[in-house]
Amino acid sequence: MDSLPPDADPQETREWLEALEAVLAREGPDRAHYLIEQLIDKARRSGAYLPFSANTAYINTIPVDRQPPLPGDFALEQRIRHYVRWNAMAMVVRANRHTNVGGHIASFASAAMLYDIGYNHFWRSPTKDRGGDLVFIQGHSAPGIYARAFLLGLITEDQLDHFRQEVDGKGLSSYPHPWLMPTFWQFPTVSMGLGPLMAIYQARFMKYLQDRGLANTEGRKVWALCGDGEMDEPESMGAIGLAGRERLDNLIFVVNCNLQRLDGPVRGNGKIIQELEAEFRGAGWNVIKVVWGRHWDPLLARDRSGALARRMMEAVDGDYQTYKAKDGAYVRRHFFNTPELAAMVADYSDDDIWNLNRGGHDPFKVFAAYQAASQHRGEPTVILAKTIKGYGMGESGEAQNITHQQKKMSVDSIRRFRDRFQLPVPDDKLEEVPYLAFDEGSKELEYLKARRAALGGDRPKRRPKAESLPTPPLAAFERVVQGSGDRDISTTMAFVQILQTLARDKEIGRRVVPIVADESRTFGMEGMFRQLGIWSQVGQLYTPQDADQLMFYREDKQGQILQDGINEAGAMSDWIAAATSYAVHGVPTIPFYIFYSMFGFQRVGDLMWAAGDMRSRGFLLGATAGRTTLNGEGLQHQDGHSHLAASTIPNCVPFDPTFGYELAVIVQDGLRRMVTEQEDVYYYLTLMNENYRHPAMPEGSASGILKGMYLFQAGAKGAAGPRVQLLGSGTIFREVAAAGELLRQDWGVESDLWSCPSFTLLAREGMAIARANLLHPTEKPIRSHVESSLAGTTGPVVAASDYVRAFPEQIRGYVPRRYVVLGTDGFGRSDTRENLRRFFEVDRFHVAVAALWALAEDKTIPASRVAEAMAKYGIDGAKPAPWTV
Fold it and tell me: Residue 3's pLDDT is what?
C-alpha cells in the first residue's frame, strides 16, 4: 500500500469500500473475489497499468467461520504430542551425556504439531488395496519421528539410547537414511533442497504411472515437510513452476516457518511467509497461510479498524523472533505499541499475551489447513505455518539464534519443559531425562494405534521388495553382440539399439522408462519420439512443426519417454522416482536416464548420492563421455572425472565400455541383478559419440567384462623379444590397440591387449581381497582378478583411458609389476579428437612411448630406443604438462 499515491477522493474510496463490505457480508468472499477480478480485468483491457500482487494480508488464509472442527480426542492427542516432544528431546540430551554425536532438538520442537496432525489424521500407510502416501520428512526432525515410533513399539528404548551410534548395529540414523534403515525411512532428505525437488517429481511420476496404467495412484498424496531456511536452496524452489504448470494436485508442501535458519533469522528484515506466498502463488500454487493460533481469534475479531492486521504486517521476522525470546510484558510494550493496540489488550495479563500462539502450534489451525490442502483440486498446495524454533526449550534455546546447535539442556530447562507440557517425571528423575511410554491398554496408546489403524498401518513406508521381472537373454541383443559389420557406429548408437530392443520386449517393455533432459537428437534417440511418445498429462494440443516427417515430435498421454527440458536436476529426480518405484509404489520400473556425461555427476552428484541412499535401481548413461571424444566443445563439456565421482558411491556399478557387445553384456547383467534378483544397486555407463567398427564378442569374454577386465587380443605366442601388457577402456582402448600395432611394427615389441570396462570394479574387488588377506594372515592368500589375469603374462603394464590418471590408478596395488598410467588430467580444450589426444598424451603414440619407457626402466631395451620413438612420433619432451596451470 505504501507505493500508492495519496488518496485524491477519500469519500469515493469509502463508498467503494462500503460496497465491498456489503458484498462480503451478504454474498461471501468468493463473490467479492469474483467481482474484484472482473474490475481488474476490465481496467487492464482498458489500458490501465495494474501490476499483479501475489500477497494477501499477514493473517490466516482460512478464516474462523470456515474452519472445520478438529476430529478425534483433543485431550488425548495433546497428551500424546507432549510425550513425543519429551522423548525427542530426551534422546538427544541422553546421547550427548556420554558422546559428542550431536543431534537437533529445536527443529522438531517447532514442527511437532505439523507432524502430529499428519500422522493422526492424514498420512496413509500402504495396504493391499491402496498405495499409501509419500511423506518427505525434514531431516532435522528425525528425533521426533523416532520418539513417536517408540510410543507405538516400533523401536526400543535401547535403540533410542543409541541414537546416532550405528556402528554396532543397534543404533538409529542421524537423519532419514533408507540405505541404513530401509524398513523405516521412505526418503533421504537432510541434504537440504533435495527433498522438495524429489517430492515434486515423485508427484509427477505418480501421474505418469496412472496415465500409463502401471499403477492406480488416485487419491494418494505426496507431502514434503520443509524448513523456511531450506527454501533458500535453489533445488527447493527450482521446480515449483513445473508443479504449477503440471497442476500436481497430489502434492502438498508444508513449510515450517520458524523464522530461523542455522545461524540466525531467515529474513530478519523481511517476512519469509509473505515472500514464499508470492513465489508459490506466482508459480501457480494454492497457498494456505497458517500464521496465528486460535488465541489470536478474539483479538482479530475486535480489530474493526485493521490496526492489528497492519501491525502484524509491519513487524518484521527479526521482531517476531525477539518477541518469543522475551516475555509477555516485552510483547505488550513492543508489539502492542500504540494507544489503540494497547487498549485492545488492556484486559489481557502478561501471561495471556505470552500465550497468544502461532498457527503452526495450534491443532485446530493446522488440521484446517491440511484438510483444505487434501481437498484442493487442480493445483499443488503449499502450507506456510508460522512456528517458534526451539518451542518449549526455554532459556536453553527457544527463539534464540543458538537454538539449532543446541543438543544439551540444563536441569532447570528440563524442569520447565516438564512443567510446560505437564509430564509425569518426578524431580529426582529429571537428571536422567527418562523416556516416557504409555502402559499397554492405556487410553492414549489405544487411541494412537486406532488413529494409525484407520489410516492403514503404523506409518507411510517403503517396500524393500516388489514383483520380480524376467531378464531377456543375451541373445535378445544379438544385433549388437555380433558387432557392427562394415558400419561405423558409436557406443551411444549401440545403446539406442539396446533400448529399442528392451522397449519392444513383451515381458518388460512397458516398464522401461527412457528419460532425457533435452538432447534426444544429440544421442540419436529422436526415432523413439514417434515409437514411444513423450509423456504429457494433456497429450498433444498442437500440430508439431515436423508432423510431415518420419520421426516427428509426439507428445502423448500414454507416452513412455520422460523429457524435462534443459533440467538435469529434474531429469535425475524423474530417474530417482522411477528407480525407486518398486519400493514407493510396489511397481518396478526400469529407468534409463541418458545425459551429457559432464552434466551428470558433476552437476547433480548430490542427487546421485541420494539415489544410492534410496536404494535406487536403474541405469544412468553418461553420453558424449570422455575428455577427448567430444570434438570442439571444450572445457565445460569434456568429462574426464565422472568415473571418480561414481566410484565413491558404494552401490553404483560403473562401466566405461568400448564396444557394443560389452554394453549388451553389462545391461543384460544389470537387468538380472536389479529387476530379477532385486539387488539395490544402480549402473552408470559412459557412452561415446565417436563412430568406429565394433567387432563381435570374443568367446568366453562375458565373465571378464562384468568383472572389469578381459583379454581382448593376445600377442603372438612364443614370439622372441620384449612384451608388454596394454590396458584401456572406452574409446581410448582403440588408441591402446593401435599402439600395440606400432610397437610390433616399429619396435618389435609384442603386446597383449586387455579391455578394462571397469577399473572401479577391479579396484573394489582388489580392496575386498586385500582386506580378506589382511584379516586371515594364516590362510593361503587370495588373488584379485587383476593379479590372476596378469599372472601368466610378462612385461610391464601400461593403462590409458579418457579420464584422469586417478581412474586407472585405482588398481595399482593389484598389478604385480611395473605399472604406467596415462590419463587426461587438466582442463579440457576445444579441438579435434586427434589433437586433444595428442595434447593430453593418451594417443597411440604416447601409449607406445610409455610402453617403451617401461621396458627401458626394466632394462629390457636401451633408453635410447625411447628417445628414438619420441623423435619418430614428434613427441616434445619440453612441452608443459596438460594439467599445468
Answer: 60
**Cβ burial 14-49 (10 Å sphere, 16+ → b, else e):** eeeeeeeeebeeeeeeeebeeeeeeeeeeeeeeeee
pLDDT digits (tens, 9 = 90+) for 438-476: 999 999 999 999 999 999 999 999 998 899 999 999 999
pLDDT, tens digit, for every residue of 816-861?
Answer: 999 999 999 999 999 999 999 999 999 999 999 999 999 999 999 9
Q: What pTM, to 2 d.p., does this model score? A: 0.94
The mean pLDDT of 652-680, rounded to a whole number, is 98
| CA pair distance 831, 859, nearest whole angstrom | 38
SS3 22: helix
Supply 467's cell numbers. 514383483
Kindly provide the b/e burial profile for residues 412-442, where b requires at least 16 CB atoms within 10 angstroms of the residue's own CB.
ebbebbbeebebebeeeeeeebbbbebeeee
- What is d(CA 36, CA 775) in angstroms, rounded to the nearest whole number? 78
SS3 state of residue 766: helix
Confidence category of residue 395, pLDDT binned at 50, 70, 90: confident
Element at 620 (helix H, strand E): strand 619-623
**C-alpha 752: how far from its chain's center?**
44
Nearest Cα residue to 516 out of 547, 473, 562: 562
518 CB-contact burial (10 Å; exposed 0-12 / middle 13-18 / buried 19+): middle
Query: Do 81 and 108 contact (CB within 8 A), yes or no?
Result: no
Nearest to 448 by CA among 70, 68, 78: 78
Q: How many residues does the chain have?
A: 885
Q: Which long-range contacts (CB under 8 A, 24 or more apart) does 424-433 make?
A: 425/86, 433/89, 433/90, 433/93, 433/94
Residue 487 C-alpha cell reads as 558400419
Q: Phi, psi at residue 845, to the nearest 5°?
A: -70, -40
Give the pLDDT mean for 293-304.
95
Q: Residue 470: which residues within 8 A CB-CB, separation 6 or more?
A: 507, 508, 676
Cα distance between residue 663 and residue 643, in whole Å: 16
Q: What is the CA radius of gyration of the chain?
A: 32
